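Can anyone check this?
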Amino acid sequence: MKIRKELLNADKIFQEASSNLSFSKVNPINEPYVRRRFLSNKVKNPELKYEPPIKGLLDLRRKVSSINIDEKNALDTLMIEKQHDIIRKIDLLNSIGCFDFTERSVKLYGTPDKRLVNKAYDILNEKVKKTKPVKISSKESVKFIKNNIKSFGLKYKVLKKDLVTSCLIHTDKKEFLLKKHHRYSKKFLNRLVVHEIGTHTFRYENGALQKLNIFKNGLSNYLETEEGLAAYNEERFGLLTKTNFRNYAGRVISVHTAQENGFYKTFRELKRYFQKKTAFQLTLRSKRGIANTEFAGGYTKDLVYLKGYFQVKNFIKKGGKLKDLYYGKINCNDLKYIKKIKLKKPELLPDKFDLFEFDDEPKSK
């Protein structure tokens, strides 16, 4: 595939922009304090505080905006959409804690429609049988992940570190991080392999085979398909549990409710379906980005998980091929353009994994 110089130059700027956009800035720095105060009934609509904005965002926006791409073919269209996507992301990050954050978030991620909200409520109304999975040692966990990574010819380091989350993958650094001193269940490790390696890592590595960085960093709106595909893959291998599926549904309801209500009213709605701590966490996720949570609005990103799941299911139902979603980090809707571009075929596909055998939690239907 021959690529014009102007597109190669634009791709370099997009790469620079992507490496400088940190969405962890959306997470409030006073979360532990807010959690204690709220769960002890000392505050209903907590004030959220954030780190200072990323330096140089406006300069970066001007640099990206100044790119002029003549729309001559399908690749040009994808590049222009990526340009607009980066600008929307910069605007969102630059508005954290400000009055226009919600508007910026809606422009980037949208809001859940009535059909998705109804589906989410249907999922939440299903009963879940609680189980207590058996957990294995940290040493066994590392060995399991290493063996799976090695089986696909990936040269990633598997490291144990002090993490806030249970695991973390740095595809750009070729690192798979597990939480130090943490014991994982076999089911959870299987999910890590299928979700993190078989979806996120595979799409990144296949995208890295292409001549443009946008295919490994993500085309415009790739996240919806990315997370939906991860959930779909879990389901294919019998790993999408009702607990996880309900969590995706809870995120949709949280986003939907938060758009018209403050923190406490959103929490009360979620408390109908979840334990107090889980309801709090779901509420906090959807109210991120704003300072005074007494007001309506917040971060709408969390709708992509369930929305993406149904998007991928519908894509497959209509005869779409799973392998076509592995050219890189793309959206299902990009395929009409990608089929007109001569890209390298995906080398990594989620056909088979070396998984633990287990039977400890009901799976979603």
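Reply from J.R.: I decoded it. The radius of gyration is 21 Å.
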